[in-house]
Amino acid sequence: MSEYESVGGGSLKFKGGGIVKKKKKKTDASKVVKAAVEARESTPPSTKPIKVIEKTAAELKFLEVQRKRQEEKVLKSAMKSHKEKVAELNRKLEEMTEHYDIPKVGPG
């Protein structure tokens, strides 16, 4: 027990001084608002034309085909009942290989 009595408690201390806290600068809200208003008034309104990006014919065709496939998929899944979905899942699980099954260990 005497070995541990000489150890001091608390956090470690850095050489050359203690913790130095930085002081926060106080900003006056009215000064910030005035600066924002002056900046807005000094800049002229934007006269740059807005660039409109149009899709190419290939992109439009791709999006149309993608939309049709999505609709077909939704209709196909909506036509199945819960019982049919469960039967399909069970059939799929039966067809899977038994690679991921837990191997039997021991005799028998």
From TrEMBL:
Keywords: Coiled coil. It comes from Entomortierella parvispora. One of its GO terms (cellular component) is nucleolus. Signal peptide: none annotated. This is Protein FAM32A. Residues 53-99 form a coiled coil.
